[in-house]
Amino acid sequence: MKSFNYHRPADLADAAKWLAAHPEARLLAGGQSLLPAMKLQLAAPSDLIDLGALAALKGIRVDGSQVVIGAMTPHAEVAASAEVRRAIPALAALADGIGDRQVRNRGTLGGSLANNDPAACYPAAVLGLGAVVRTDRREIAADDFFLGMYETALAPDEIITAVAFPVPRRATYLKFRQPASRFALVGVFVSDGPQGVRVAVTGAGPCVFRASALEAALGKQFSADALRGITVDPAELNSDMHASADYRAHLIPVLTGRAVTAALAA
């Protein structure tokens, strides 16, 4: 690991100022992805700007028909939140299935989204619920936020402050996990809410994406039977030592059907 300068800003303005002043700096949220990358010399920031002291970026609140979660809120807090369990139980269950206890207690919502790992769980929830990502300068719709592998719509000096999740009528997240890392080989978040039926898939491609054919079928009939005969093209899906693209393509409608059945039974 190369040497770096460490900053611990007292407020968001200071964090934004230091980030703008140091083009090679990186924000430190939970550090569960960034620090391992630094140890492997896959990342070598000149400065780390630790957001841990910014209380304004933490917390959960229900605001009308949406749940607003601060960017620095740990996964474990989301999983344990009575408000989240009551309003969007699928989101609480998703958070409770991320990594292990250390990751859930250190990793944060904003850090996960900014990193945009192809197999991360939170991007599926954000895209599957049609959430809005709030930053220190604007609001970004989920459909516009995720651009590609480890790529988002964030500017280099932009900071995620919170995410607003619309409360759906019903939703479920299921993932077929890689047993060692607990990342998703394929994860599917299905919701039926204010924006209609949405099906977001993580782990299968270079970036989280919506399965439009499955959404169209479920929009007509929200049941597993509506997915019979629908297949997913494996051409642009991931293929690696853990699973082939064909296998991932097979899992997507299977997991979606199971998620729909679970949502109807909840």
Automatic annotation (TrEMBL):
SUPFAM superfamilies assigned: CO dehydrogenase flavoprotein C-terminal domain-like, FAD-binding/transporter-associated domain-like
InterPro entries xrefs: CO_DH_flav_C, CO_DH_flav_C_dom_sf, Diverse_Substr_Oxidored, FAD-bd_PCMH, FAD-bd_PCMH-like_sf, FAD-bd_PCMH_sub1, FAD-bd_PCMH_sub2, Mopterin_DH_FAD-bd
PROSITE patterns with a match to the protein in the record: FAD_PCMH
Residue ranges constituting the FAD-binding PCMH-type domain according to the UniProt record: 1-170
GO molecular function: FAD binding; oxidoreductase activity
Family matches, as SMART domains: CO_deh_flav_C
Keywords assigned by UniProt, alphabetized: FAD, Flavoprotein, Oxidoreductase
Domain of life: Bacteria
UniProt xrefs under Gene3D superfamilies: 3.30.465.10, CO dehydrogenase flavoprotein, C-terminal domain, Uridine Diphospho-n-acetylenolpyruvylglucosamine Reductase, domain 2
One Pfam family, short name: CO_deh_flav_C
PANTHER family, sorted: XANTHINE DEHYDROGENASE SUBUNIT C-RELATED (PTHR42659:SF2)
Record protein name field: Carbon monoxide dehydrogenase
Organism of this sequence: Pandoraea thiooxydans
